User: Fold this.
Amino acid sequence: MNAPNTAQPAIPNDYAAYPDARGRFGDYGGQYVPETLMPLVHDLDAAYAAAKADEGFQAELADYLIHYVGRPSPLYFAARLTEHFGGAKIYLKREELNHTGSHKINNCMGQILLAMRMGKTRIIAETGAGQHGVATATVCARFGLPCIVYMGAVDVERQKPNVFRMNLLGAEVRPVTSGSATLKDAMNEALRDWVTNVHDTYYLIGTAAGMHPYPAMVRDFQAIIGRETRAQILEMEGRLPDAVVACVGGGSNAIGLFHPFLNDEGVKIIGVEAAGSGLDSGRHAAAINGGRPGVLHGNLTYLLQDREGQIEEAHSISAGLDYPGIGPEHSWLHDVGRATYLSATDAESLDAFMLLSKLEGILPAIETAHALARIGDIAKDVGKGGIVVLNLSGRGDKDVNTVAAHLGRTI
Amino acid sequence: MSKSRIEARFAALKAEGRAAFVPYVMAGDPDAATALAILKGLPGAGADLIEVGFPFSDPMAEGPPIQRAAQRALSKGMTLQGTLDQVRAFREGDQTTPVILMGYTNPLITWGLEAFARDASAAGVDGLIIVDTPPEESGPLADACDAHDISLIRLATPTSDDARLKVVVARTSGFVYYVSVAGVTGVKEADAEAVAPQVARVRRASGLPVAVGFGIKTPERAAAIARVADAVVVGSALVDEVAEAVALNEDVTARVLSKVAALAKAVRLARQDLATV
Assistant:
């Protein structure tokens, strides 16, 4: 339980074999939850393991992913973006074309089927930008389950269209005013709800973080992104890419893309954290680049925290990346050196948002724009003749008010 | 010395034939000086054991009263070091009342578990309750506590079945804390009738005294629980007194100790009432 960081961690033979039976990726992960929740967490672990091994469950999930979510999502060669940077060929994995406009629905569809299999009748979730809240509200509407979404009051204010979308879908959005009134506080409040309503409630966590089995389960449900990408790039280019790139907050879209490539030695794995006003400014959301290991929300992982171990507020233009932690598998991939974690500032991400909109006719989510802000460097680094794939994790319609405000425009 | 302080206190209470009253206060709430004055006044007001919360920014099992208490303490600069300093100052005047620290694991990890157990023991801490460290994650913490004679006190809950109870009580000492309601602190009300058989079950499984907390706000409720449990913990209702006294510009120490005295009296008389009924 002591924070790791001294001894050099072992490089695994098989990255796909993690987490271990204790829910650990190396030292990271675990189940740091109040005792009231432990029996539920163990139940969930067992129920998910059974579902994962059940062909019927997997077939039902696959069917909904095709006919309701709209999978597979295209892998698109971004010719003008590639030409603009003059480096490696840039492909975009079009997760923003999924139903509800982001990758979040992949995980929600998997977990709602699991919740029903477990006989749960009430769904709770946390959300930052509102993308996970919308995806959760969507699957709850589809299957007729009541849905309560906890959302920081600050985020409710800056993501009003998504709040309204959740309401239209029949969900109750509860603004959270405690702490910094953003994503971490929404997660605290959802955990408090869960601990209070243990008998009927399923907590549908939206990112690959929190207590085991969530990091592994959310990753598994999102890994369809990487599996499709792998097959598509082999079909289109006849070989694997040189690098795969994604933005990282909690890191569910990133781990979903990365995981099927972890054992492919030649594929560079690159995550991009939110640097807010800059890593040196103290106002950012870069847990790996600006934090150290600690325990929050049930897992040991890199966190923004002060020298006393109090959690610090994250700062990012992107509500979806505005979280002081990161999924434990990312912390481990960083420590063992399998993945590289870069960062992009608010300003760089806004520029990237504009660039993709104008060059490719795609408004990216401001979260995704953080990865786009580094794609030029990466494409040049890989060089002509190379191939890079970026996960276009969400669409940017929800962000037009934020972008307009930063441009000094009113709409 | 440390573990034996808890054992000695429960042995004495058993001889008296009554339950313990255990107030929970937040270190540094509303400020360090006032909190220390409250701490020093607790035994005189009737506290048999004392739980001292050390503040954390993200207390996931706490309801609004203790969340706000932690925020008040942090905003006045309270730290884990500051918390140990308060216990050390308390120990200068009181060598017998057990002090249990209660909180979340990240500040401890930051300090280093082994070093923290050593320093806490030296300051006069007798036990630790770490809310977000269940048995599965508590091996290193239990080792550190054992090495420095500190009781690692575990939580049993309404969701703990018999198999789970065995896991919960392994490597625990001092007493077991029974969380009387599934929920966060200070919201739902504890029901003495529902709690009684659970306390008996936890006592059988652990062979240790059982303290009951979460959802006990009034002297009446405290007395009802005192008839079935070995100790009664009240926290949210006390930190609410701090908040109200601050808001009304009243003497915080006097107001909190007066509430403690009323609760302690109810606990002391609880089984006498029962005997005369």
